[in-house]
Amino acid sequence: MKGPVDIRKALRSFTFAGAGIFNLFRYENNARIHLIACIAVVIAGVGFHISPMEWIVIVIQIALVWAAEAFNTSIEKLADLVSADYHPVIKVVKDTAAAGVLILAISAVITGGIIFVPKIILLF
Questions:
Q1: Cα angle 109-124-117, degrees, rounded to a multiple of 5
Q2: Do 94 and 76 touch, CB atoms closer than 8 A?
């Protein structure tokens, strides 16, 4: 009898998820842009010695944007498979998924502004 958790199956799932993350950053330009922004924010966070609570907010924002980008990419790839030709409904689906990423990216920029602008102002 197997235990409550199948470790091999769980490890296999992590491997698949890791491949998905690798492919996201390897093939998706916008994911790489978000990665560069993430690196800049982390460097700024270290440089400005942001508080643990600010780090929590930053990490959540980064994770939300990356997750949205992964969902958006998945939806786009599936839509392309379903209909390789132009279809107005597929366009709406893709545009709406991209809007979700944009909404979260704007939220992340606003959050970054709330955290970093006062610290930048103090420099001057």
A1: 15
A2: yes
The pTM score is 0.86
Q: Domain residues for 13?
A: 7-123
Reported as a single tens digit per residue, the pLDDT across 56-92 is 999 999 999 999 999 999 999 999 999 889 999 999 9
User: What is the total count of domains within the chain?
Assistant: 1
Long-range Cβ contact pairs of 97-102 (< 8 A, separation 24 or more): 97/71, 97/72, 98/72, 100/68, 100/71, 100/72, 101/30, 101/65, 101/68, 101/69, 101/72
Instruction: Check: CB of residue 53 under 8 Å from CB of residue 45.
Output: no
Say if 2 falls within a structural domain. Answer: no
CATH number at residue 108: 1.10.287.3610
Residue 1 lies in a domain: no
Return d(Cα 95, Cα 75) in angstroms, integer: 10
